[in-house]
Design brief:
mainly alpha
């Protein structure tokens, strides 16, 4: 257990020094929050009620789909994998430590957004804070599980960037955080519901923490765990 905790702490320190993770988990999400938060609340004052949830969806999606996968490629696509094997360390350890490290980094970003939004943009805090924090923690876990699949499945960095963008952009544009989903054509609305972002967004809304909004995220997570297990077995 102590070795595992040491591995998580070591990965945390490595990620802090990673420019890629710093940009995708902190700089871009917070800059987007500071710029777009003012624009959204000025153009659509009613967005103060959902600004926090919207910015969290954007930040988590950025960190999970664009920030985590390159770190996995660096580990499982290099000689580091051989070091794991030579020392009898399970290959899953690298994935778990990077997953947990990214989770904590994204949690910090989300907490910063929750604290600053009411002060800077008069955003409304969620009515049920315990349920809200639990909801966005679930959304982070599910998003990171999808990012883990990308990092384990795709070996080419350029290809990874393209595919990650193909998941990230629809997650933001079709999730309902920019504008209500009922304004979209039926085809795009249905497409948006295929991405966890729309479910995570609804789960974080006031009185949104219910099985109706939770079941799809649970399903995606368990499917992702199975796929990651298969991919790790192939790498071994």
């Amino acid at each position: 257990m102590s070795g595992f905790l040491y591995g998580v702490a070591l990965q945390w320190k490595l990620d802090i020094r990673s420019k890629s993770l710093l940009v995708t988990c902190y700089i871009i999400p917070l800059i987007f929050f500071l710029l777009m938060g003012g624009i959204f609340t000025s153009v659509m004052p009613e967005m103060r009620n959902t600004l926090i949830q919207s910015m969290i969806v954007m930040g988590v999606s950025m960190g999970a789909f664009i920030g985590l996968p390159p770190s996995l490629i660096e580990t499982y696509g290099s000689d580091i994998k051989k070091v794991y094997k030579a020392n009898g360390v399970p290959l899953c350890l690298g994935l778990i430590t990077m997953f947990l490290s990214a989770f904590f980094h994204l949690m910090i970003t989300c907490v910063v957004i929750v604290l600053l939004a009411p002060v800077l943009f008069e955003a409304t805090l969620p009515a049920q804070l315990p349920s809200f924090f639990f909801a966005f923690a679930i959304y982070i876990i599910v998003s990171l599980s999808i990012g883990s699949i990308l990092g384990l499945m795709i070996k080419n960095q350029a290809k990874l960037t393209m595919i990650a963008q193909l998941i990230f952009l629809p997650s933001i544009m079709l999730s309902g955080i920019m504008f209500p989903m009922d304004l979209l054509p039926d085809f795009l609305e249905t497409t948006g519901r295929m991405f966890p972002a729309s479910w995570g967004y609804r789960l974080m809304l006031d009185h949104g923490f219910c099985l109706e909004n939770l079941w799809y995220l649970i399903l995606v997570f368990f499917v992702a765990v199975i796929i990651c297990g298969i991919l790790l077995k192939k790498l071994s």
